[in-house]
Amino acid sequence: MSAGEEAPTMPIYEYECRACGKLTSALIMKAEEESQVLCKHCRGHDLKRVISRVVWHKTEAQRLSEFDARGRQDDAFYRDDRNIGLWAKKRLSDMDVDLGSQLDETIEKARSGKILDDL
Questions:
Q1: Under DSSP, is residue 13 helix (H, G, I), strand (E, B) or coil?
Q2: Residues 85 and 110: beta-carbon distance below 8 Å
């Protein structure tokens, strides 16, 4: 997808089960399919559609520009492999140092776990 293009939307809806209170997600391609949705937890039919949380993906450049390398990160930050190398990239960017594609290649190897193959 190129810059300026919008991501395609998927008709995935969330439903709350009135019997067990849990959420179920369903892909609805046709309006008539909505009546066939069952709770994935208790198999109940009494569901109501709820407003889903909104999530969007940021580009690497957006994540880098918004990242505070001096700030403290919570544990969840370190469990996300997309954050491997983010601190180094941000610090180098702040110092106007460009290591080119070599740094990107090394970070990608670290994110994919292939960095150990070179040792």
A1: strand
A2: yes
Query: How confident is the prediction along the chain (119 residues), in pLDDT tens digits per residue?
Result: 455 555 555 688 999 999 999 999 999 888 889 999 999 999 999 999 998 777 778 888 898 888 888 888 888 888 888 888 888 888 888 889 888 888 888 888 888 878 777 66
Answer whether 24's CB lies under 8 Å from 37's CB: yes
> What's this model's pTM, rounded to 2 decimal places?
0.43
**What Rg do the C-alpha atoms of the chain give, in angstroms?**
21
Count other Cβ atoms within 10 Å, centred on residue 103.
Answer: 15
Q: What are the residue boundaries of the structural domains of the chain, listed by start?
A: 12-50, 60-118
Are 30 and 21 contacting, i.e. CB atoms less than 8 angstroms apart? Answer: no
Cα(13)–Cα(15) distance, integer angstroms: 7
Residues 80, 75: Cα–Cα separation, whole Å:
9
